[in-house]
Amino acid sequence: MNLIDGKAISAKCKAETAEEIKSITASGLRAPCLAVILVGDDPASAVYVRNKKRACEAVGITSLEYLLSADETEEKLLELIDFLNKDESVDGILVQMPVPKHIDPDKVIEAIHPDKDVDAFHAYNVGKLFTGAPRFQPCTPAGVMRLLKESNVEVSGKNCVVVGRSNIVGKPMGALLLAENGTVTICHSRTKDLASFTRNADILIAAVGKPQMITGDMVKEGSVLIDVGINRVGDKLVGDLDFDTCAEKASYITPVPGGVGPMTIAILMQNTLTSYKMRFNLD
Ligand code: NDP
Fold first, then answer.
1. SS3 letters for 155-205?
2. Which of 20, 99, 144, 283 lies at 20 to 30 Å from 248 by C-alpha?
């Protein structure tokens, strides 16, 4: 069994982005800029925002932080997004999800200009992804693809099973695997006899959010197992895979934490650079 080291691969990915930014800005061009908006004081969201800010600093992206109170109106948030859409010095805009209940997340996603939608959530960018011409990479799924690539896992012709069909992970994950010529099955809460699908998977991606729900008896000998799930159990973080029993059968497996988690921000940094390059017509 080989453990896939997401921390190391994320560091490599960020170093590449930093290197490219350094060489572009050496000519005197301004640095790329990411604006992050946080509405409310959810502690987990605050940690994600802090980590994004740190990653920006590390790779040479200017980060702007907008902290709005939990009772801020949807109108005010949309006004801020509109302001940032028009600001030529901003390349990427990200609203940390989830937003408070009185704000419609779909309205927020659609308000961000598709050219600045570095999360790749806007319907335009989703459409580009599914028609095979993505501009921004869906962060977590693209992070998974990079983990597979760095581990020399061939996707073409493999049975790829994704458990979970969210817009953030499951669906775009399926699109990326399909683009690499995997044979893709997407399972969800209404799937009957989940194990009959997971046992057939050469590559299994678990993106459910249920602690250790996939056990060793549900996976194929020699398979590649990627755990997107992040679940807090007591004071520990665990994935959707029951790590010990799954690891006995896997050829490759990601740990939680330290697997897929660190990749999401690394791809966000790449997307911000992509947006910046689009703005300045660089390559
Ligand atoms: P969602 O809650 O949006 O989606 C969960 C999916 O799992 C749904 O499609 C749901 O099916 C499916 N599901 C629920 N129960 C079952 C079941 N018993 N059998 C099969 N499928 C089931 O979650 P997300 O996609 O946003 O996130 C999934 C996990 O990944 C979470 O733990 C989250 O914390 C983590 N995550 C990690 C990231 C990272 O950076 N590593 C980034 C984003 C998420 P249905 O559609 O039918 O309801």
1. CCCCEEEEECCCCCCHHHHHHHHHHCCCEEEEECCCCCCHHHHHCCCCEEE
2. 144
Q: CA triplet 136, 275, 153: central angle to 5 degrees?
A: 35
Ligand 1 centroid vs 207 CA: distance in angstroms? 5
119 in catalytic set = yes
Q: Note down the domain range covering 177.
A: 139-261
Q: Rounded distance, CA 81 to CA 95, Å?
A: 9
Q: Is residue 280 assigned to a domain?
A: no
Residues 34 and 98 in one domain: yes
For residue 163 and ligand 1, the question of a CB distance below 6 A is answered with yes
Q: Is residue 125 part of a domain?
A: no
Quick one: 54 and 106 in the same domain? yes
pLDDT tens, residue order, the chain (283 aa): 999 999 999 999 999 999 999 999 999 999 999 999 999 999 999 999 999 999 999 999 999 999 999 999 999 999 999 999 999 999 999 999 999 999 999 999 999 999 999 999 999 999 999 999 999 999 999 999 999 999 999 999 999 999 999 999 999 999 999 999 999 999 999 999 999 999 999 999 999 999 999 999 999 999 999 999 999 999 999 999 999 999 999 999 999 999 999 999 999 999 999 999 999 999 8
- The number of domains in the chain is 2
Residue 200 shares a structural domain with residue 236: yes
CA 169 to ligand 1 center in whole angstroms: 7
Ligand 1: which atom is nearest the Cα of residue 239?
Answer: 32
